[in-house]
Batch of 2 targets.
Target 1
Amino acid sequence: MALNKYLCRAKKETVLTNVVTNTIDFFYPLFRRWMPRQTFRYAVCGGSNTLLGLLIYALAYKFLFHEKNVHIGFIVATPHSAALFVSFLVNFPIGFMLMKFVVFIDSNIRGRIQLFRYFFVFVSNLLLNWVLLKMLVDGLKMNAIFGQVIATAVVILTSYLLQRHFSFSDRIRYYWPAPEAQRATGALLGALGEREIPRPLVSQYLGHLEDGLAAGRFKPTAHELLIGSVKRVLDIYRGATTS
């Protein structure tokens, strides 16, 4: 019974994830020229969650705290700081789900490690946001909502870099030579053989290879997708060392 409930819940989550991912990818061809698919997904997911956070922040600041200091025991919080905390409570779980299941789906790091890293980065960004907000609102006497918009713009770039290269970064080179990994890879390649993997499946789980497939640089077989992924990473390193 418990297993059936788990499978049912997992199926619902997969359907919801597919709906969100396919909806975002529907508009990707319009932006293909300027950014890779993963960056586009991050822009949409991060942007939507950011707008939601700004909306919650504005509503909490205006109507929940009425632009007045909040007294919690012996602690006194300014209304913009309290509103920022409320927006955090909503943005954190939604942001993690979008980053894990829509944006960085190629990360093989265990979920609890991803969650810990995401929490660490999110809290760091929250602290950065708070410091910027204090400087802009308390120091420069800027409007609280306008100040939050500026602080958010700074945090967005920092957040993407940290999420991409820390929270969901998968250092596969550390365990790739392990015999268990080699056997698993051999078994997978042997099972799939030269069978072409459906493009929608490649697009969903290996979206970073979509442009290469569309250009005909490799076929959608397991071996060529594996080589294409390795070449993509090597091209990034080559570009960084030759520019």
Note: The chain has two domains: 2-170, 174-242.
Target 2
Amino acid sequence: MKAEILAAHERLAGYVRETPLEWSAAVGAFLKLEHLQHTGSFKFRGASNKIAMLPVEQAAKGVITASNGNHGLGVAAAARARGIAAGVYVSSHVSPAKARRIAAMGACIHPAGDDPLTAELAARRAAEESGRVYISPYNDCDVIAGQGTVAVEMQRQMPELDAVFVAVGGGGLIGGSRAANGDCRVLAGKFAGDVRMPAGRGDRGGRRAADPLGIDGGRAGTRLGDVRSVPARDRSRRAGDRE
């Protein structure tokens, strides 16, 4: 997987921003400022890598995704950069401001149901019926490779890096970060009270990238061919936990 991440880093040069790694005295750690990325999120990396890898004939058909948040915005922006169409399926819980930003990128918004799972299933059906590619926020190795370019930048910005803390949702960012970081420790974190992923205290095994409780603002579906695990080792910790 590391080779795929390094290839993504080269492929995306000139498309994604190399965001700063800056010291925060308030946190007591270096912060990777991905809020300065195009669309304000690392999600643009994975979407851009996936779309850049599509054959010309396939890309010409356009792409589809389901997201109430930053992934939908990332896909919309990446599709616009390549000059192809994008459809984003959203649930009724989507933020109106986020929906406006996605539409402003040229994507077609498709309201579908009252929860993200319903929206995802509708998006997958539409993709299968139309022959377009469905782009998962995390359940896709090309997307994970794109997210992992964050770690490639961090290694170059700070070669002596020995530990990285990554917020966990669907698992794409931490999967890519672990695969790219070699012997550097990668620790998963989540907000206290977040029920989407078990705390797993002391668990040194991988996390399912296709966790049905984890996607982009709500529940998501799993299916045959899912990415079954991400190589994130060490332990998942809740904010505020102590050793």
Note: The beta strands are 21-24, 29-32, 63-66, 86-90, 108-111, 133-134, 163-167, 185-190, 236-238.
